[in-house]
Structures are given as C-alpha cells and as structure tokens.
Design goal:
The chain is α/β, with parallel strands linked by helices. Helix content is 42%, strand content 19%. The protein is built from ten helices and twelve strands. The strands form three sheets. It has an eight-stranded parallel barrel with strand order 1-2-3-4-7-8-9-12, surrounded by five helices. The protein has a two-stranded antiparallel ribbon with strand order 5-6. Helix 5 packs across helix 6, helix 7 packs across helix 9 and helix 9 runs parallel beside helix 10. It is globular, with a radius of gyration of 19 Å. The protein starts with 7 loop residues before the first strand and ends with a helix.
C-alpha cells in the first residue's frame, strides 16, 4: 500500500437487507451498488438505492455488460449505466472480464474468455467504447472459472495486464476468485499478484464460498457462492495485495445466507483489521526512512 492511501471498507448493497444495512450504516465506509438493480429493479428498490446518495459513498458495479460476447456492445445499455453512475455520484464503474450471453441466449453465468492476443484486442476496443459512454474510470474484474479454453496463450495476469495497459482500464481484483482459481487449477496466487502491473489494482472484492465434494470430481472444487465467511487463505492474499498495491476500496460481497448478519459484520471487521495493519506497516516504514 502506498503512503497516504487507506482503503475504504464496505459492503455490496442488497435490497433484501436494506433495513439492516441502514441501521448499521456507520460500520461501512462505502456501499457497492449493482447498476443492473437500478435498471431492472422495481420502483421501490430503485428508490431505496437512490435514497442512499449523499448518506454514504457509493461505488457502481455491473453484471449485465457481457463485454466478452463477440458482438458490439449495447450502447443504449451503456447510456443507462452512465445515467445511473452519475446519479449515484460513483467515482468508478466496474464490470467482469467475461461473457454472460451469446446472441439470443442468456447463459446465466460468468464465463471465461480465451486468453489470446486477438481476444485481448477485441476487449481493448470495447473498453474504449465503454470509456467513451461512461465518464468515470472503468475497471475490469477477474472472475473465477470452471474451465480453461485450450487455445489460451497468455496467463491470467498477462491477459489482464495487456488489456489494461492498452486501454487504460483499472483492475477490480476479486481476491476470493483468485483464491478459488488457484486451488481449482493449481495456480500460484502470489505469483499472479506479483505479476500485476504497479498501480493496476484500483478496488478489491472479498467473499467466502463453499467446497463441493463429488465422486465424479478428481478433487474437491471450490465454488464462488458469496455465502460464507471469508476463508483465512483469502485474508492472507489481501494482506499480500495491500503490501503491494493501493486499492481505494475493499468491498465484501454477500449474496446468500444474508440472515447471518453477524458473519457479515465479523467479515467487515476482519477486512478492516487487515487494512489497519497494512496502513500501520506503511507508517512504520515511513518513520524508519
């Protein structure tokens, strides 16, 4: 973490616990809003979200762009996103480096892209389209994936570095996704972090998933369910990231078992402890110099 940069710690907003979030608003520095909930949600949900403007800083995150689908981006959708980002007063807009649909069909999953120079070139062009329509910095998020395309030529870090370097996009680093991919595909998460370009990590996601056991699987499979406490391995990776990068926010994602509010607050406290320790380390090094 660079000097003078202490990340804000927050939570992904979910309307089903709106009342609870409001009662505990002082426990969070920031809330992350899913822009698609503003586009497709009912009037009551939209009113709840926009009522938060001015009460707490809000980030804008998307799930509907499908930047990896091999068709031109939906410009009308991007204009809706731009209007929502402006209304939220969000400093950035983030989306997944993935595809979620093919022409005529919603696949209902975040699916990986072949990591090739040709695909990177296509994504770079689309990022520039996003940047031209949405006037805040654009961030791409790494996803967890079940399979790898056989024609991939680049590593995860090489693919992200290339796209972000050539387009000017930043990275929303999902550390839980990194942990899952590392376990499921026998990758080195620390080597991945070390390979990221300096200054690339602008925001961070944290979450906790589940382990799937099946006789047809060669080994247990870790799944990104956003339903359980953050594993210690993911917190360790956060410490490593904070020692090397300076994200502006660290946001906890929770999508299931939302009634386990004690777990949510415990995870926020655990994240905040990591951020505090990293800031103290920076301060101590500055004094030593």
């Amino acid at each position: 973490m660079r000097r003078g940069s202490t990340p804000m710690v927050g939570l992904g907003y979910r309307s089903s616990i709106d009342e609870w979030i409001r009662r505990h608003l002082g426990r969070f520095d920031v809330l992350e809003i899913t822009v698609d909930h503003c586009i497709h949600g009912d009037r009551a949900q939209q009113d709840e979200i926009f009522d938060l403007v001015g009460r707490i800083p809000l980030n804008a995150h998307g799930v509907g762009l499908s930047i990896g689908t091999d068709v031109p981006l939906d410009l009308a959708y991007l204009d809706q996103v731009a209007a929502i980002v402006d209304r939220l007063k969000a400093p950035t807009y983030s989306e997944h480096l993935a595809f979620t649909r093919v022409p005529g069909r919603d696949l209902a999953n975040l699916l990986p892209l072949p990591k090739t120079d040709e695909v990177a070139e296509s994504i770079i062009s689309k990022v520039r389209t996003v940047q031209a329509r949405v006037p805040v910095p654009f961030l791409l998020e790494n996803i967890s994936y079940v399979f790898e395309w056989p024609d991939s030529k680049l590593s995860d870090a090489e693919f992200l570095n290339l796209i972000c370097r050539e387009s000017g996009a930043g990275l929303l680093l999902d550390i839980e996704n990194l942990h899952l991919n590392s376990a499921n595909h026998r990758l080195d998460p620390y080597a991945f972090i070390d390979a990221l370009a300096p200054g690339l990590v602008r925001e961070v996601h944290m979450a906790g998933g589940i382990t799937l056991q099946d006789e047809n699987l060669p080994r247990p499979f870790l799944a990104d369910s956003h339903s359980h406490p953050i594993p210690e391995e993911t917190l360790g990776l956060l410490d490593y990231v904070l020692a090397r990068h300076a994200p502006s926010t660290v946001v906890l994602e929770r999508d299931d078992r939302l009634d386990a509010t004690g777990e949510i607050l415990d995870d926020v406290a655990r994240i905040r402890a990591c951020v505090t320790d990293a800031s103290k380390s920076v301060h101590d090094r500055a004094i030593a110099e």
